[in-house]
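Today's session is about reading a structure prediction critically. Students often jump straight to the picture, but the first step is always the sequence itself: look for stretches that repeat, for charged clusters, for runs of hydrophobic residues. Only then move on to the predicted structure, which in these notes is written as discrete structure tokens rather than atom positions. Here is the chain we will use throughout the hour.
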Amino acid sequence: MRLRSFLLLLVAALACTRPSRAPAARGTLIRRATLLDGTGAPPRIADVRIVRDRIDAVGDLTPRATDRVVDATGLVLAPGFIDTHSHYDRGVFTHRDAIAAVSQGITTAVVGQDGGSPEPSVAGFLARLDSTPAAINFATYAGHGSLREEAMRADYKRAATPAELARMEAALRLDLAAGALGLSTGLEYDPGIYSRPEEVLALARTAASSGGRYISHVRSEDRAFWPAVAELLAIGRLGMPVQLSHAKLAMRSLWGRAPALLDTLDRARAAGVRVTADVYPYTYWQSTLTVLFPDRNVDDAAAQEFALREVAAPEGLLLGRFAPEPSYVGKTLADISALRGTAPGATLAALIHEAEAWERAHPDSGGAESVIGTSMSEDDVARLLAWPHANVCTDGELAGRHPRGYGAFTRVLGRYVRERRVVSWAEAIRKMTSSAAEHVGIRERGVVAPGRYADLVLLDTARVIDRATPAAPRAVSEGIVTTWVNGVAVWDGGRATGAYPGRGVRRR
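Below is the predicted structure for this chain, in token form.
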């Protein structure tokens, strides 16, 4: 009996000293929101609870004592927007609050575009994000141009040798192992413009063998557009997903041909090619002056005349950067031609030569010039945006001269959805979220559902609109109420919160 009594007392004592249940984690309850969940489903009224970095529950929820409650009555709640073609890696560690992105609801940016891997490397970039996170998430591709520069150095204006291609393939495998989504190309730019299709195809096979994807600024968006699209689709026939970057018809002779392009892509999809596209909602691009001369024959008078007649008029070429003469920034080629007293074609060639000389004198500068060129049709942009397999992108920078960096997503919502009704609200949100995630292979983001990462945006559909213009490229959009990244508010009440919950998103 004594033993039995002792054991009972011991059990009672242990029960009394057993640790109490851990308190419920503090959450955020977003109440009575009009939910567009990213799937394309119609809107519905729902509550969403965030706990830590995940969505805990969706439905008709009862507030807990530990919840911070956000009244979303009359507002739309959507997944955070995913920018599938971005240059937000440029200056991210200087602009960690990423106001350009969070103020328009972007929570994840996909970089490493146009053939350029982020600095110093895919592995180095993602590791730095781990130690010094930004306000938003980043995923990246491995850039063909960066691989080519490393393998060929300054001697890149030719086809790669088998040994050089082998070095590129080995470096690509390292980038893929570090978490790159796949391979990107910028085949209208140096050094990628000098690569043969066989080189690109071989590297695409390397990416495909690791489950990677392919995204491309194709060889031409004007003169040789159709062969460039054909090259993209040939890579898609390897069986890997392929994405047409910032789809556009950037030459007067191509205007109105969007239906023909979409028919080509639809026929490829019907034949088994997993081709998709991203689009930004502007009729003007930003690039370098040299893209106006795919044969790099800048002194050829006929080539000059063709570029200024068919691609972009002198009045439609606005300098966004010009290191040799910074006062030219914000001026058009027509303005500079008048200042110099030289013909537009000759002025254009001279600007290119001056920029190249400056770059030779400043080899680590990152480039001497950029230009914003007006060369697309508004109707074509709308048709491309409406294609079911197109998603929205910015192609923008955190502190760039093109307004797309601050306004692409809100421009789509305000001007193409609310005003022009090109697509429905549910479809537009799908294009910005679940469709974007699927197109680049990002998981667990892009849909509002229990267990998904709590990347969310709360917006006012009556007010949402872009305000950035070429003259004021960093004007902040209206109508984005709150942006959450991994459960933490990074934009609220018209300002950045100073939180940096972003992460590197790696391919699995």
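Discussion point for the tutorial: Residues 278 and 391 are 5 Å apart (CA to CA).
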